[in-house]
Specification:
4-stranded antiparallel sheet, conserved putative lor/sdh protein from methanococcus maripaludis s2 fold, Elongation Factor Tu (Ef-tu), domain 3, alpha+beta, 21 strands, 357 residues, Helix Hairpins
Length: 357
């Protein structure tokens, strides 16, 4: 009789092992097997994720304001007269001291000449009386009266010269003529309420904003600010905080803050509407996340991250806010896979299918 070969023995052993496995599978609970299979086949919740990165963040208070000229003035007449000539028009730039208009001056010139003639006569009379007084031929009182008359005429002459000079209307400041009220041939009265011109110096503008009470701790002179103007879309204009009111308005709960804007090229105009961001804090290379990823419940903040295809709830501590970005002080690290869409209905440990941005 032939002895069984080693190959025959191996095949027989393999068949016996398969029978044992099949027998064991036949004894498994069918419900338990279906549950395990369902768990393995359950699809993950689709979510959108973002790898956490570091970046710069700047905290700001938002406000709006109308731009105003830091310096402007009305030009009013200082003497009575008829306007003979006007040398400027609206929109013209004028320098301080530049002639704007001329008034009729002949009457004022004649007044100066008349007083000068009287002054010469009195001065000559005074000199003769002083010589006679030295010889005691006239009294000292006569000399004193003439001296007083001379002083009075000298003062009148100075006033008359001032009035004559005021018939030439000059610009008190440098700037642009924003309004011209004067008309040639019109009679004007000294110090009348209606001005002849309005001049605006647009080289330095200001914006006055009212910030909430809790901002008073952070706002101080010297802080930078950015302006966005409807008239100049896409252009970023910078400003600086120059004055901060120490008083809170009890009615509105706000305080007044004034910003200065350099405008040497006169690109900006008084009256423009501006949206303003006053920056009060800035940090660089911090962990930051988009606002949409943050979930706030009862003054607590948390996010979801992906770990081994599961959603993991993580409590976080936030810091500065910069628009739609939040600084994360604790809870996250650079490189964490943060869920930014679909996290509101998740539970801790839920299976997810991540779609990374």
């Amino acid at each position: 009789m032939k002895q069984p070969t080693s190959t025959h023995f191996i095949v027989t052993s393999a068949i016996a092992a398969m029978l044992i496995i099949l027998t064991g599978c036949g004894n498994m609970d069918p419900n338990r097997a279906e549950t395990a299979q369902a768990e393995n086949d359950e699809p993950g919740v689709p979510v959108e994720t973002l790898l956490v990165e570091q970046g710069n963040i700047r905290a700001s208070f938002n406000a709006s304001a109308i731009l105003e000229a830091e310096e402007s003035t009305d030009v009013v007449p200082r003497v009575n007269g008829i306007i003979e000539e006007i040398f400027v028009e609206e929109g013209d730039f004028v320098s301080k001291g530049q002639v704007l208009a001329k008034l009729e001056s002949s009457r004022y010139a004649l007044a100066v000449s008349q007083i000068e003639a009287e002054l010469r006569n009195v001065r000559q009379e005074l000199e003769r009386n002083q010589q006679l007084a030295a010889s005691q031929l006239v009294s000292a009182d006569a000399v004193s009266r003439l001296q007083s008359q001379l002083d009075s005429l000298t003062a009148r002459l100075e006033l008359a010269k001032i009035d004559l000079d005021e018939t030439t209307v000059r610009a008190p400041i440098s700037g642009h003529i924003s309004r011209r009220y004067a008309r040639t041939g019109r009679l004007i009265q000294a110090w009348q309420p209606e001005s002849m011109f309005h001049i605006v110096d647009s080289s330095l503008l200001r914006a006055t904003v009212h910030l909430p009470e809790h901002a008073l701790t952070y706002i101080r002179p010297g802080l930078p600010a950015d302006l966005q103007l409807q008239a100049l879309p896409g252009e970023q204009i910078t400003a600086t905080v120059t004055r901060v009111s120490p008083v809170i308005d009890s009615g509105s709960g706000t305080f007044r803050t004034v910003l200065s804007i350099e405008n040497d090229d006169f690109k900006l105009r008084a009256g423009m509407f501006a949206r303003i961001q006053v920056h009060y804090a800035e940090r660089s290379q911090v962990v930051r996340i988009p606002q949409d990823a943050l979930i706030r419940i009862d003054n607590q903040s948390h996010v979801f991250v992906v770990s081994e295809n599961e959603a993991k709830r993580v409590e976080v501590v936030t810091g500065l806010q910069d628009g739609n970005w939040f600084e994360v002080v604790a809870g996250l690290e650079r490189g964490d896979e943060l869920i930014i869409t679909g996290q509101n209905n998740l539970r801790d440990g839920a299976k997810v299918e991540a779609i990374t941005q």
